[in-house]
Amino acid sequence: MKISKKAIPVLAFAVGASVFVSTAFADMLLGSGYDRFKNSIKNTAAQLETGLNSYTIEGLFSLKDNNQLLLQSTFVNKVEPGKSENTSSTQTANGETEKHYSYSDKKLSVWKSGSDDKYYATEYPDDMNRNGGKSFDNPFKEKGAQEVEKIVDAMVGNLKDNVQAEERPEGGRIYSGSLSEAQVPAVVNAVSSFGFKQMIGQQGRMEKEANLPKIESDIFVKKVTGKAVENKAGLLENVTGDIVLTGKDKNGVQHDLLLNVAVKLSDIGNTKVTTPDLTGVNVEKVSQAGGFSSMLVGKYKNNIVIEKNGKYVKIGERNLEITSVEQNKVAGKYYETVKPGFEAEYPDAYNFNFEYNPSQSRQMSLFTYTNSKGEQEQGQLHPSGSGKLYIDLNIEMMNGNSYRSNMNRQNFDGEMIRVFEE
Where is the composition biased (Polar residues) (predicted)? Predict the structure, then answer.
C-alpha cells in the first residue's frame, strides 16, 4: 500500500500507536477464545502467503484527534495466480487527497503515485522467474516473531475472560472484546507513554503536515475494542478495532486520539486482476535493475542524532542528492554536516560524488566512492518506499550473494527521506 508523502508522518503515528497498545489488545484476547483466535490469525496469514489462489483485501485506517480527522487511508489489494493489483487513497487533515496505484505480473510492473500524471513501467525477461502475484509476507515467519509472541502470552494478568468466542451457525466463530481504562495494565500505559513521546520527537514534520497534537503528559490507553469474524474454513474475513490514546499537551488541553482499523477479506477463489491498458497514457519505462527512475531525482536527508546526558540531541544531518537518472545510470552526491562543537562526536564526515549503474552489475550491485581519508570504499543504494531511498556504506562482500556493512558510526541511519520543501 502506497500513501501520500504528506500523510507518511501521521500514518507512522497511527501504526506506532497500534504497536504500543497491541499488547493490551492481545491481553484482552487472553481469555477463553485466545488460543482459538491466535490460531485463526496464524492460519489466515499462512493461507494468504501460500494457500489461497486468489483473494481481495480491503482496509480502512483513520486517526482522529477529539473527533477531528487527521488521516484516513483506504486500500484495496487484489491477488490471483501470477498477478496482483494495489490501489489506495489517503486524505490528510488539510483535506488533500492522493491516490496511488500499482500492478504486477510475471513480466510487467506498473505504478503511479499521487498527483503525478505519469505511469512508471518495468518489463522483465522471460527467464527471471518472477512471481507477480505474491504480495503478502507472513509476519509469523519474521525473525523474532516467536519471542514477541511469548512476551505477549506472558502478559496475561486478570484479563482472561474479557473475550467472547461465539460459534456461528454457518461455521466459524465471532471473537469480540473490550478493555476499559481501568483494565489496561500499567506496563502497557508506561510503554505507550514512553513510545509516543519518542515518536513525536523523531517526527519533526508531523505537527506541520498533519496537525498532530504534541501530547506531553498524562498519556495512557483509554479504551480498546475489537471484533473479528472467522469463516467455516478458519479464515478471518472481517477484523475491526478501535484504540483510544489520551493525554495533555503543553497547555494542559486534553486530547483523545482515536485509531480505527477495519480489514476485510473477500472474493476468495474468485478475484480477477485486469492488466492495465497503457495505450495513450504518459508512460516512463524503468530498468528492472534497481527500480530507479527520474521520479527519484531530488534531495533526501535525515538527522544525525546521539544520546547525551539522558537526552536525544540532533548534532547534524545526512544529505543525499540524486542529480540524474539516465540510461540506467544513477548519479548523485552524499555529504554529512555536523554542528560546531560536535565534531568529536561524529568525526570524518563523509562528502563524495558517485555514479551507480545497477543494470550492468550482478544482484549485489555496488558503487565505489572515496571516504574522508582518501580510501576507496563501496556502497549500495536502493528505493525503500514512497519518497525514501536507502544508502549503505563501507560494504564488505562476504560472497557473491551477501555482504556486511562495516559502518562504525554511532547510530548510523541509512534511510533517507525526500525533501519536498526547503
Answer: 84-95
